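Structure (tokenized):
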């Protein structure tokens, strides 16, 4: 039987680092964020038309889709955000389902599914185990300011739509804390992988 483990955590907690390390070790991973990235990168006509339909025309230029403009608009307009999420989540769910089916057919022992909004969308029961990456808000904001040039206002907007770490701790089978150095975090990841 293929064991399916979900990875989740708040923005800036360190999910990408965990996923990179798991890939290095040869584990199969499906990343929701990667799939979302592909949707924006591929710029299919259907998606462009949809963005215009729901009021995101300002984000479209000839060469690309400006995600910063989208982010600004959706944090000011919940209706547009919900419509956009509905479209994207449908595609990501299909890709995730196909990936799981494919790995089950291959009889892969363990697979990982990276889902940032796992608890927010009540998806945890679809998986055998859940691992949460936990880091304090202060640490996460510091990282995001450095890596994504994110402002404190943007960060606050995002975490408002995400579940709390208290809830993550209650609902998770494994927890990795990432409040210290990258070296310390990687040591914890290796310990987790060795337990598998």
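Design, position by position:
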């Amino acid at each position: 039987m293929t064991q399916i483990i979900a990875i989740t955590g708040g923005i800036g907690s360190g999910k990408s680092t965990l996923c990179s390390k798991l890939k290095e070790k040869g584990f199969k991973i499906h990343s929701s964020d990667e799939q979302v990235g592909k949707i924006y990168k591929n710029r299919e006509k259907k998606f462009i038309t949809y963005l215009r339909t729901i009021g995101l025309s300002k984000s479209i230029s000839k060469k690309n889709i400006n995600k910063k403009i989208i982010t600004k608009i959706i944090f000011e307009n919940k209706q547009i955000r919900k419509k956009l999420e509905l479209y994207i989540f449908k595609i990501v769910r299909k890709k995730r389902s196909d990936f799981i089916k494919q790995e089950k057919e291959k009889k892969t022992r363990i697979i990982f599914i990276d889902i940032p909004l796992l608890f927010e969308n009540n998806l945890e029961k679809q998986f055998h185990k859940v691992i949460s990456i936990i880091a304090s808000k202060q640490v996460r904001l510091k990282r995001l300011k450095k890596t994504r040039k994110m402002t404190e206002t943007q960060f606050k907007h995002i975490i408002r739509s995400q579940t709390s770490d208290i809830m993550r701790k209650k609902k998770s089978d494994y927890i990795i804390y990432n409040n210290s150095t990258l070296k310390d975090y990687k040591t914890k990841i290796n310990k987790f992988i060795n337990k598998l």
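Reviewer-requested clarification: The two ends are 15 Å apart (CA to CA). The chain has one domain: 3-195.
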